[in-house]
User: Fold Porphobilinogen deaminase from Neoroseomonas alkaliterrae.
Amino acid sequence: MSGIAVRAHPAPLRIGTRASPLALWQARHFLGVVGGFCPMLRGDTFFEECALSTAGDRILDRRLAEIGGKGLFAKEIHEALLDRRIDFAVHSLKDLETELPAGIVLACTLRREDPRDAIVLAPGGRAGLPGAPFAALPAGAVVGTSSVRRQSQLLHARPDLRVETIRGNVQTRLRRLAEEGFDATMLAFAGLKRLGMDEVASAVLDPEEIVPAAGQGIVGVTVRADDTALLDLLAAVEDPAARAVATAERALLAALDGSCRTPIGGHARILMDGALYLTGLIARPDGSFLLRRRVSGPVADAERIGRELGAALRRDAPADILA
Ligand SMILES: NCc1[nH]cc(CCC(=O)O)c1CC(=O)O
Assistant:
């Protein structure tokens, strides 16, 4: 049914992504999911890839927080959608702002890949500190990350560590790790897995202790809000569990309304009894304050659970954090 609807769309359908290897992998993975759902949409006949360079990819010498934050990975892609240069876009959900531009909607979320953060040690590095939080990391280690969320959790647990900025896509960061004197870096395990590099991870961290970014490990697809043919198709390939956890995590993030300088984490999972269990984190970038709180409730209330946990964290965080 949806396959027929989508055939009425002018062909080929143009799929937009960032120009990174991970983004291209995710776009092809998405096409595989669509093809599995609707065999007539398999192959290249109906789709054309359009890799777009975003400000977040081009500006690599500064922290995201300094150059304007998360929207930077998606702005050019939203513009291409609204200008009809592409028909839909495949994103890492964690790089997609919670409030999308008018006329663009999150049409589907795919099944979540592993949402955890991982520690990658530089080749030939020193041994870790047994028993310590982040036990893989040696005493005084220099950790390369440009994420204030990762930085705050590292420094809170291990004040002996030093955090330095490192940017670029996953491959670039792994190369720079070896070349530039870092002892370790922290990356999304999902990205490593998708690129077939999960064996470089020395440790994978419990997401209820070291809280990942909202949406980490989930691929999200955006379309123009009035494109009913594509909305129908994408609703059919949606993973409802990924939608529920993404809704809770993104509602938490939106309620905190932090700048990208505010360390915020959110991680939801669905328990065996069907309840949604949400962990939220807010911290000061230097790790001198860190608040983590957990709540659960019915999956159908994902949005409200996220909003309320966000409001509670906001109430209990010191004023300077969300100033
Ligand atoms: N911020 C960059 C980014 N966006 C998505 C991923 C990994 C894949 C994912 O979380 O879906 C990464 C790399 C990282 O954080 O290490």
